[in-house]
Amino acid sequence: MSELRDLYQEEILDHYGKPRNFRKIENPTRVLEGYNPLCGDKYTVYLNLEGDVISDIAFQGSGCAISKASGSLMTENLKGKTKADAEELFNAFHQMLTRAPGEDYDEEKLGDLESLAGVVEFPMRVKCATLVWHTLRGALQGREDSVSTE
Amino acid sequence: MAVTNSNGAIRGFDVQAIRRDFPILQQQVHGKPLVYLDNAATSQKPKVVIDALVNYYTAVNANVHRGVHYLSQEATADYEGARTRVKKFLNAVDESEIVFVRGTTEGINLVAQSFGRTNVGEGDEVIISAMEHHSNIVPWQILCEEKKARLRIVPINDDGELLMDEYEKMLGPKTKLVSIVHVSNSLGTINSVEQIIAMAHSHGVPVLLDGAQAVPHTKVDVQALDCDFYVFSGHKLFGPTGIGALYGKRALLEAMPPYQGGGDMIRSVTFEKTLYNDLPYKFEAGTPNIADTIALGTAIDYVTSIGYDKIASYEHELLQYGTERLSEIKDLRLIGTAKEKASILAFVLDGIHPHDIGTILDTEGIAIRTGHHCTQPLMDRFGVPATARASLAFYNTKEEIDALVEGVQEVLGIFS
Known about the structure:
Number of helices of chain A: 6
Structural class of chain A: alpha+beta
Strand order of the largest sheet of chain A: 3-2-1-4
Order of helices and strands of chain A: HHEEEHHHHE
CATH class of chain A: Alpha Beta
Number of domains of chain B: 2
Number of strands of chain B: 17
Distance between the termini of chain A: 30 Å
Oligomer: heterodimer
């Protein structure tokens, strides 16, 4: 089924099997846990901030292929970026995941995050793809409680 | 047990004929025949149950217990007829011991709030087990927090069986109630409820059984079990959602205060003093869920007309077949391997999250449940965040289990 192949692309499976930045940052500027109570996916996002710049970002935890690959891709894309860049990229990412049929998305801005474009056909899995992002945004806002997608 | 023919088929059990009773099973999902293996979440409904709902609203609809007119009498007779069916179904002594509730969850909450708040005090103990559904954990946590009582948890072994020695040690003068699942929704374990009840009774402690997953698979006789409370949901028994029943021994129910106040549960009301109605109406405040109650009665008729001996024999065959087929898959681990088991096959695959399994199977038209199944403490016990669960009903077939196994192979292929 082609929708399934679009969802579980090689790049996704590669990031799931070998997630990048899948580690703990000692004494991070910000740290926050994100949890999806419906499926039990649970991740911790670690951040080091220098002013408005994300100088280091990493994550740990467990969950499905979509959520873990999303965490891997997110951390790769955000290192060295500003808070504003992160928000902009999240908006483009979220639009891609929830776009209407036939609607375009910003391929240029999204880069390799495009490999998660197939999630749009699986509305139940949008939360998987966005869990680490919601956690990141909570951390950037200075939240200290955990983030829940439910 | 039902007698089997020489070819192994169960005499008088025609699964294809039964499947034709269920309109929803005839449809395709994502272009594939629907393979519905999520019966522990909710079961499908035979046409007779759907017809009962339509017929009620088409020809009978009226409020019960209060009208002198024809329809009200008809509705009351049908509603109370369903109570008689539940009474016979559970082999209760009397209709007054059957209280209609929204489902198992409400039944447990009723006992926790009414029996619990009256009988459990500071320092007392309530015993549950490590394999309980959240609906048989949280009501007791709320009670124990309010009353400063202690919730004790009977542990389980790696096969998902209760450690009866540990349970026996917990029972004592502080124990006020034991509330245990009859059949586990996550593991399929059939607990030794006779023994659980006998041990509790030797300490004078009443027992509530959560029968939500038991009634679709096995005959329940509350008198033979000598259980004090028994609860189940209609929608897991091929009936509608939003209706279930609580059985309670009459003496216990008599002594319990009402759960909710309102119409129908009163004998007379003045601003100075209200007298409560007799059992079971004392616990049924407000206009009840009449249509679904009547349809639950129809579902009970349907299941009992097939016969639990045949259902048990057939499902045992399916379970054995499914266990063998899934066990052939390398990297697959079954969660829940009790000796006494109902037809639930929960599993995990090495390195593949259950959600991904569920999504891939869905594209093949196969419906399973993935997640923690409302038993998070149990998932922690087995060291998994979630499982994939195929739960079988008597309308499932070996071919559907083959489809499941092929689907799991496809999952492994994608992730290889």
